[in-house]
Write a structure and sequence with these properties.
Elements: H1 11-17, H2 23-26, H3 44-55, H4 74-87, E1 99-103, H5 106-119, E2 124-128, H6 133-141, E3 147-151, H7 156-159, E4 164-170, H8 182-189, E5 194-197, H9 202-205, E6 215-219, E7 233-237, H10 239-252, H11 258-290, E8 295-299, E9 322-327, H12 330-340, E10 345-346, E11 356-358, E12 378-382, H13 388-400
Parallel strand pairs: 2-3, 2-4, 4-5, 5-6, 10-11
Antiparallel strand pairs: 1-7, 6-7, 8-9, 9-12, 11-12
Helix pairs in contact: 1-4, 1-11, 4-11, 5-10, 12-13
The chain binds pyridoxal-5'-phosphate (PLP).
């Protein structure tokens, strides 16, 4: 571990430099991609020690063999160190101690957290709706041995039992973009760890560990990669909990591949500028939408009334770059708009450099129970880096005939 700089770095500087501490010693400027699936063992004895270290969730000591890619990969580890530094960052203090454990996808990351709680003998999960459709469906399936109770953000304390191992929440919520008070949920959860899916906010706008969350989960496929060409998931947590997660990753095999790790790590460098620029444009598009006939509701935390608990400024530094809106014409109008757009792409997923639009009830939230379904006239947009004027022109043309 290098000695920390005397002067704490800003998030923007960490985004560019974190996880790259060993590059100068390696004599390289870009991050090397280590594709080895197996690694030379200096001796049987040292190989065995390395095996034992990985099986118990330890990080390798200097000079130790990585043994096998499913146990450890240095390219993945650099990305983990980079993201952990961002999630642990506190501009007003020393920050928190955190380690990241990366996975093949966001769902693999959530799966590992759930399995670690089941393994601890605490299979009951309290889930604050609304959640990402895949997370909601995974919990409802009980596939991993969890038992779920769905609650709203005020019902967490009443739902916690002696067997509760985890509280799961998301903010901003998907797809309605309501904000939830992380510290309040943490307080209600008492001793039970709280997992926050931070995919929509990114560490640029919100760092849940500073508000008491035990686990932060990301679909790195979204903003972190930022270009729609790499999948990944990450859990950021305390070093003690990371030790529990790594053996689960090794055993279940949902590892991040080094190519994707490289792309996701490269994405971190531009994450702050992308998110802030996309947020700026999202605000303009959201305000414009509020004045359009045929649009009955705009869901965006930055609009008047969009943040009733005053969480922007306290928990989240800005309203983000996701915008949803409801059309008076219901499903038929939504279908028309998706088909009539020229610049904006009709596709699921989010967080990339180009603007995407999708119909949550028919697509991403199809798998959730009826009572948690968004309305049939609701469309969700992930605002990209195009000019706000061009996006507004495209939307205006599509809405004119909706
Ligand atoms: C996409 C997404 C996930 C799942 O991530 P994958 O990388 O697709 O497995 C989880 N949570 C949220 C909020 C997402 O948007």
């Amino acid at each position: 571990m290098p000695t920390p700089p005397a002067h704490p770095r800003s998030l923007a500087s960490l985004a560019v430099h974190a996880g790259r501490d060993d590059l100068a010693d390696l004599g390289v400027h870009a991050m090397p991609i280590d594709l080895s699936t197996t690694n030379p063992l200096p001796s049987i004895e040292l190989g065995r020690d390395a095996y034992d270290a990985f099986a118990s969730g330890q990080r390798p000591t200097p000079g130790m063999s990585s043994v096998y890619r499913r146990a450890w990969n240095p390219t993945v580890a650099r990305f983990e160190d980079g993201l952990a530094a961002l999630e642990a960052h506190d501009p007003f203090g020393p920050g928190v101690e955190a380690e990241a454990v990366a996975f093949a996808t966001g769902m693999a990351a959530t799966t590992a957290v759930l399995l670690s709680r089941v393994a601890a003998g605490l299979p009951h999960v309290v889930a604050v709706r609304p959640l990402y459709g895949g997370t909601d469906a995974l919990l409802a399936s009980g596939l991993l041995g969890t038992q779920v109770d769905y609650v709203d953000a005020r019902g967490v304390a009443a739902a916690v039992t002696e067997r509760t191992g985890l509280v799961v929440m998301e903010t901003p919520c998907n797809p309605t973009l309501e904000l939830r008070d992380i510290a309040d949920v943490v307080r209600q959860a008492g001793d039970v760890p709280v997992m926050v899916d931070n995919t929509f906010a990114t560490p640029v706008l919100q760092r849940p560990l500073l508000h008491g969350a035990a686990y932060v989960v990301h679909s790195a496929t979204k903003y972190i990669g930022g270009h729609g060409d790499a999948m990944g998931g990450v859990v950021v947590t305390s070093p003690e909990r990371a030790v529990e997660l790594r053996p689960i990753r090794t055993i279940t095999g949902g590892v991040l591949d080094p190519w994707s790790a490289y792309l996701l790590h490269r994405g971190l460098a531009t994450l702050p500028v992308r998110v802030l620029a996309q947020q700026e444009t999202a605000g303009r598009v959201a305000r414009w939408l509020t004045a359009q006939p045929g649009v009955t509701r705009v869901f965006y935390p930055g609009l008047e009334g969009g943040d009733p608990e005053g969480l922007i400024g306290r928990q989240m530094s800005g309203p983000g770059a996701m915008v949803a809106f409801e059309l008076a014409g219901g499903f038929g109008s939504a279908e028309h708009v998706c088909g009539a757009l020229a610049l904006i792409t009709h596709a699921v997923s989010l967080g990339g450099v180009d603007t995407l639009i999708e119909h949550p009830a028919a697509l991403t939230h199809r798998v959730v129970a009826e009572e948690a379904q968004p309305g049939s006239g609701v469309l969700r947009m992930s605002i990209g880096l195009e000019s706000a004027d061009d996006l507004i022109t495209d939307l205006g043309r599509a809405l004119a005939h909706a």
